[in-house]
Specification:
The structure is a homodimer of 210-residue chains. Chain A is mostly helical. Chain A has two domains: 50 residues, Arc Repressor Mutant, subunit A; 112 residues, Tetracycline Repressor, domain 2 (Orthogonal Bundle). In chain A, 68% of the residues lie in helices and 0% in strands. In chain A, helix 5 packs antiparallel against helix 7. Chain A starts with 20 loop residues before the first helix and ends in a 12-residue tail after the last helix. At the A-B interface, helix 6, helix 7, helix 8 and helix 9 of A face helix 6, helix 7, helix 8 and helix 9 of B. The structure holds a DNA duplex (30 and 30 nucleotides).
DNA sequence: CTCATCCCGTACGTTGACGTATGGAAACGA
DNA sequence: TCGTTTCCATACGTCAACGTACGGGATGAG
């Protein structure tokens, strides 16, 4: 049984490739099923049918359904942490960095669905652990960005939580009632409004307590 | 088979009682299971065990699992639309009305979990329909409140969507990473910040486009 | 050519939940 | 007291998915 490394026939040379090619394909399919059908859609036989094979294939690559879930979660966490930093780290200005984060968060509808599906399956301990870690990472990163804007520790925490909650909620509203969600021109106005409201300009007013 | 009215031995007199007593008990249990375990937790035999009975009882009250789901959704929608208006309609000042709505939205953690669980199960057509209706109702009501504040049609739509998304997101963040969510004193500051940011005071500045 | 390993298909046993059939106990009216 | 209605338990068949056992074709090494 593989599950780790066993020299896949393709992609020779870079022996840094740890996971078998098919393993990742199964994991991707699992994430796809998760985004659309929830956690129970991550089922061996349905996925096998979807991929045009049978269980026999699956149980050669994985010891169990739980192993597939673990692999899918690992893949998701990697995507989530890498994509979150991509195109953001290069921005030096903290304001522009936050703007970039927001644009990114609103750009990938599919990633939003995936997060919501995983968050809804947090009852599963393995899922809950990863969701909590990813969510905490995002919040901490946003918090650092707000601190870089000059906000105090408390203010940064409050504003970053505020902003993060808003964008998570946007994904939720967008999914639950798409026809109520602003599009095109309205969305641009909506986005601009949120930006102006949620991220204080470098020279703007700083509000402490009342 | 009942499923509608059949003169429950208790609560005589008010024959306006449409659903049997036990039917509502099953529906409540179903909502409870939904909040904690998701849609698949609404299973006949597990619920029966939880209630200390067997399937025999269930299939006397309901023709199928789907009927239970429908009943639970009906109950949820009723709760959601009634509770949303309770303690809000009496407020005449639109500002105070919105504040009341926000306080209410943040007060019931359990109701938040229920909404998130149902929203996550929107793949089910019956669930999706109700979720969409409830969500749209909330948004429209909030929109009316913002219009009553004097905002234009567009501004009211944007601000109400903004505010609604934020509070939905709060429930999500609160559930996914509870230890990162502000509590006690920090929460009060957080709440105040959101209020000041999201609901313009009657005499405050009105921002149109840039 | 032979053989061993890789990858997958097939057949089987098991489990959990759905739904049905039927019996039975308790309450209630005549 | 007797029968009917109400509510629930038990037993059964079905189905879908998990996991296992085993076989078999392909492919590369010797």
């Amino acid at each position: 049984m593989p599950m780790s490394n066993q020299k896949p026939p393709g992609a020779r040379g870079s022996d840094a490739v740890k996971s078998s090619l098919s393993v990742e394909a199964w994991a991707e399919a699992a994430l796809d099923a998760l985004a659309t059908g929830g956690l129970d859609a991550v089922a061996v036989e349905p996925l096998a049918r979807r991929l045009g094979v049978t269980k026999g294939s699956f149980y050669w690559h994985f010891p169990s359904r739980e192993a597939l879930l673990r692999e899918a979660l690992k893949l998701w966490e990697r995507h989530e942490t890498i994509d979150a930093r991509a195109g953001v780290e290069e921005m030096t200005d903290p304001y522009e960095r936050i703007v970039r984060l927001f644009k990114q968060a609103n750009s990938s509808y599919k990633a939003g669905r995936l997060y919501l599906a995983l968050a809804a399956a947090s009852d599963d301990p393995a899922v809950g652990e990863v969701v909590k870690r990813v969510s905490a990472n995002r919040l901490n990163y946003l918090n650092q960005c707000y601190r870089a804007l000059g906000l105090s520790e408390l203010d940064a925490r409050l504003w970053s939580t505020f902003a993060y909650a808003t964008f998570i909620g946007n994904q939720q509203v967008h999914r639950d009632t798409p026809e109520q969600f602003p599009v095109d021109e309205d969305f641009r106005a909506y986005f601009k409004l949120m930006l102006k409201t949620l991220v204080p300009r470098p020279g703007g007013p700083v509000d402490g307590e009342a």
